[in-house]
Amino acid sequence: MAEINKGEMLYEGKAKRLYRTDNPDELIMEFKDSLTAFDAVKKDTLAGKGAINNQVSALLMGALGEAGIESTFIELLDETHSLVKSVEIVPLEVIVRYEAHGSLCRRYGIEAGTLINPPLVEIGYKNDELHDPFLTDEIAALMGLATLDEIARIKYLALITGEKLKEIYLKQGVKLLDFKLEFGRFAPRTDKWGGPGQPRIILADEVTADTCRLVDAATGEKLDKDLFRFDLGDVGEGYKKLLAKLGG
Amino acid sequence: MAEINKGEMLYEGKAKRLYRTDNPDELIMEFKDSLTAFDAVKKDTLAGKGAINNQVSALLMGALGEAGIESTFIELLDETHSLVKSVEIVPLEVIVRYEAHGSLCRRYGIEAGTLINPPLVEIGYKNDELHDPFLTDEIAALMGLATLDEIARIKYLALITGEKLKEIYLKQGVKLLDFKLEFGRFAPRTDKWGGPGQPRIILADEVTADTCRLVDAATGEKLDKDLFRFDLGDVGEGYKKLLAKLGG
Questions:
Q1: Contact pairs from chain A to chain B, CB under 8 Å
Q2: What share of chain A is helix, strand, coil (3-state, %, to 5)?
Q3: Whole-number percent of chain B with pLDDT over 90
């Protein structure tokens, strides 16, 4: 593992912190032990959760990278820290759904578990005060959150990311029901040939049990944040089981 | 005016009632004097309002019909009744916006009055219990509310209806900021050649000051339901002014 040399803290969110490094294209991401749900109305901490999510995200983003899907993940630094690319986050939450659960059911009265095929790609405006409201491509473009071209790219990347994630999980007997992604604009100041790199939209943030709805394919047992959301069982055990299944 | 021969009442909503006629393809629509806003949390009655809206809707749907946009409106029967085509209502509220106002501003924090060009066509699920939630074409299709083909047709009809409405209003010095439409599936059992008619999506419901956001183009004075929503002035006077401007 590389040496950790954290600079100024640039950002602290509900589950992560970001620090500068000497390289303007790279940041250090720290995973916290906090758990939040329902717009952070429900909060808790869980010792070891940051370490698990750091490793799960590294394993998944690593596998996505091997499949040709670029993300901000560069390498694991230690249990709770990873080196990541510095991006300008697109203020959209991108949700891909294979079954109807959660907010989709609450908003429209759709029965939980309804199969969704082809999958649905939803976008929401990342804004805590407004409770991340769901929106259309046209409204996102009108608000200047992203261009229609960027949104088309983001939705395509979300769909192919989902295909790869489903495959990875299913090999471990885990079924992916839906997940949330974030994307960033990466405009590297330097690339390996010494010039400024090609600006591009890449997968950002994290891919963990906090951002995926996952069940054991055989038993239906939940392995994700719903354990915490609805007090359904031992969250730590669920998260550890998932990490073990992914080979961490 | 035609004779009124109301049969069984088929439907009573917040602002209208529908009755059978002897012709299975035709119903009688009655406009009530009730005013409701904010999901019917705010309610009142206003003597004469039903008559005004019946006439405004007849004038506007008549003009739309002359411009080639088919609606359910057939003819005025008396002050508060019109003869209309019997359709299966598509359970979507279709909103066309030329400026940001109301729910769009509340949901996303967009500044009121922001110009929207090209106009935005939003759809919502007509469901009082769920508060008419906003949705995407894909979710509406998933829920079986309409096919993607029907939604494309509905959005196109909403846009061309808006162009015609803007023109009609502007001739009278009235600016249209946004409006709501509903559409229905009309599958006539008989047509003028004696056979079953071509099934088609047509404009339904009403086009009145209850469903349009309107201001006097010169003074900015409100002429629509916002007078009632926000207690901004004499609702009856506003509605009467609008009817007078439209030549009723």
A1: 46
A2: 30, 30, 40
A3: 74
